[in-house]
Amino acid sequence: MEILLYPHEILLKKAEKVTEFNEELKNIVNQMFETMYKRGGLGLAGNQVGILKRIVVMDLNSGKENQGKEQIILINPEIVEMEGEQINQEGCLSLPGLYKKVKRAAYVKVKAQNLEGEEFTIEGENLLARAFQHEIDHLNGIVFIDRLSPIQKRLALQRYKKLKRDFERKIGKR
Question: Is the pLDDT of residue 171 over 80?
Answer without folding.
Answer: no
